[in-house]
Amino acid sequence: MVAQPERNLILLGGPGAGKGTQSQRLAVRFGIPQISTGDMLRAARREGTPLGKEADKYMAAGQLVPDSVVIGLVEERLKAADTKPGFILDGFPRTVPQADALSAVLKKLGRGPLRVIEVAVAESVLHERLGGRISCPKCGASYHVKFTPPKVADTCDTCGTKGLITRADDKPEAISQRLREYADKTAPLIDYYTKAGLLKRIDGVGDLEIVLGRVVQALDG
Question: Does the annotation count 94 as an active-site position?
Fold first, then answer.
């Protein structure tokens, strides 16, 4: 039986581009874990690992966790057996220095090459997507006033709570700030991975299944 190549994936795109949704679908399709830096940080703190304790000092003080700690967590996670067929990184890397550090970690661990997909969506569409998000204040279920509204207006389908809310970071001024930060810090990764010959760009607008098909085609192509 021929061994399948590793599928080591990163999805890039602005906030609201659909990276998280497509990452979940790709994880199921290929049987590989979706690795969230946020989840790793929370797990490390909960388990009291050395890196978790280090991260906790910063998080408890409301400070950003240094790259060295986050990269250490990523390295630990990529040693786990479930990542051998591949992985999808969610929320990392966010900057070029983090991308350099990730490259060094993958080389150190003897992992296969990265595949990077840019989910391209116009800024006006990102504003529309993010601005219409609402969520349940009790269970956290998410909806969109236009694309995925709840079955009963202002009521959570999951737990029945009334009074769905707009998160602070989905309000107009916060959306503009998030897009500026993406352009300043994360968008340079597109150039970084393009120069490395690792990036493919797909149109992120359309039905979820259609967009997924574009991603899979780009990977298989």
Answer: yes
